[in-house]
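Hey, can you fold this one?
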Amino acid sequence: MNALLDLGQHAGFIWAAYGATVIVLAGLITWIRADARHQLRLLEELEAQGVQRRSARAGSPKANKQRARRS
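Sure. Predicted structure:
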């Protein structure tokens, strides 16, 4: 285990690189989740205004499947 943590003279740079990577990935995940919630909210607002998705138009196979699931 000590050999794994013994990174020599560049240990500070390596740990900083790992830390920066973790911070960037956490930021991206947070941003994606926040954007998804925002997009869902916008979609709900549009649906409340009566705007329908193209896939929900009468006669489309996808709309028929969605209506069947709701019933």
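Residues 16-70 form one domain. Let me know if you want another pass with a different chain boundary.
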